[in-house]
Amino acid sequence: MSHVFPRNSNKLPPVGKVGAGVHLFDADGKAYFDGSGGAAVSCLGHGDQDVIDAIKSQLDSMAFAHTGFLSSDPAEALADLLVLHAPEGLEHVYFVSGGSEAVEAALKLARQYFVEIGQPQRSKIIARRQSYHGNTLGALAVGGNEWRRAQFAPLLIDVSHISPCYEYREKHDGETTFDFGQRMANELEDEILRLGADQVMAFIAEPVVGATMGAVPSVEGYFKRIREICDKYGVLLILDEVMCGMGRTGTLFAADQEDISPDICTIAKGLGAGYQPIGAMLCSGKIYHAIKDGSGFFQHGHTYVGHPTACAAGLAVVQKLTGGLVDQVASKGQQLTDMLNDAFGQNPLVGDIRGRGLFIGMEFVADRDTKAVLDPSHKFNARLKAAAFDAGLICYPMGGTIDGKHGDHVLLAPPFISEPHHFEEVVDKLGAAVAKVSADLGL
Ligand code: PLP
């Protein structure tokens, strides 16, 4: 009997033993293509010797120092490198151990900022439906995914949610893509006015929605309008790039493709690429100085903030990403998308293939014309995950929403080191899994 508390007590996963390049191997030696990079984590693949060496060397010199006493060379160098490549205006970096911690830090920083500048009444947060921002209570409260929130409601923070910018399902017939994006963004203005403009502290969104919707990018002009609205009402814009950041969409920061800068940005996952648990929150000079010149103390912190070994790993990862690897992501993503379109474009169960860079989603439907979602009792996503796993492919399927506003989907986020023959492996194995599940369900 395993004493590890599993995610799913009904089905214990095999024990992983070896990671090499784009593959993971279990205790029986079976190979799995890491088609989702874990949860969009393993951007460099497995066994990257440069990152391993950087970690070993940091362990030899100073494994850990509490940031309450000492900063460290890797933390300083990683912050410099991130700021060098970050959207304009993001000037300070706060290192944590993962994505939920980064989001918690972002929410608390936004709140403290308004207290410091004498607007303590600003405490309301607006997020989007069907979103996910982490599993700690604060991050869960801002997330708009009903299934994840349901059993923990009422949540601790009062958050309201607007529609996501989800072209496949929310765009009206005859509406231009641009007008659609403006309509979606204008929901933010309506919500700010409904809540009271001087009550709202922040709007949080993912530039490209990952886990809960399957790589849904916003349309052109959406985030520019969001930025305008936030500026008009003095609301902070928090972009959550925990999943879509660190090169996943083809630029180091996904916000770069929206041509805007947030006030706060969260990153994690690809930052440590799975070699160490690390996340970060970047903020503007305006916010940093409000706190520095005010109480002088961000009232937040965990024991492992700025962990030197995690920062050493992150530094080696970001050096690789910015040293040419991210430049390959857009074209590799296009290759994989083209191959998916060739293989599944005519499949009656596949309603949409979308994404950006190596962050690609496929949404499954019962009917392509009406976009009707599959019967939830089919548990299509769970079956697909199991069938893909049997075929030797790790992918990231999710169920649709209960209200039928979103179908089952699969998210692909392979390592950036993947080559075309690896994509053939992904498409073949996914094809076998989709065929098996369709046949089993008689679809
Ligand atoms: N934010 C987003 C957008 C995520 O996708 C996730 C995780 O999937 C998180 C936050 C939480 O990150 P973590 O699981 O590292 O706490």
Structure description:
This protein is α/β, with parallel strands linked by helices. The chain has two domains: 16-47 and 327-441, Aspartate Aminotransferase, domain 1 (Alpha-Beta Complex); 51-325, Type I PLP-dependent aspartate aminotransferase-like (Major domain) (Aspartate Aminotransferase, domain 2, 3-Layer(aba) Sandwich). Helix content is 39%, strand content 17%. It has 14 helices and 17 strands. It has helices at 37-40, 49-62, 73-85, 99-116, 137-142, 146-150, 167-170, 177-195, 222-233, 285-292, 308-325, 329-344, 380-391, 420-441, and strands at 16-20, 23-26, 31-34, 90-96, 124-128, 159-162, 200-205, 208-209, 216-217, 236-240, 264-267, 279-284, 350-356, 359-364, 393-394, 396-398, 409-412. The protein has a seven-stranded mixed β-sheet, with helices on both faces. A hairpin with a 6-residue loop joins strand 8 and strand 9 (216-217). Helix 8 (177-195) packs parallel to helix 9. The two termini are 38 Å apart. It binds pyridoxal-5'-phosphate (PLP). Pyridoxal-5'-phosphate binds at residues 39, 98-100, 103, 132-135, 206, 210-211, 240, 242-243, 268.
Heterogens = pyridoxal-5'-phosphate
What is the number of independent domains?
2
Structural class: alpha/beta
* Rg of Cα set: 21 Å
Anisotropy-based shape? globular
Mean pLDDT, to the nearest integer, reads 95
Helix content estimate: 25-40%
Placed side by side, the strands forming the largest sheet appear as: 4-12-11-10-7-5-6
Protein name: Aspartate aminotransferase family protein
Pfam family, one: Aminotran_3
Family: Belongs to the class-III pyridoxal-phosphate-dependent aminotransferase family.
GO molecular function: metallopeptidase activity; transaminase activity
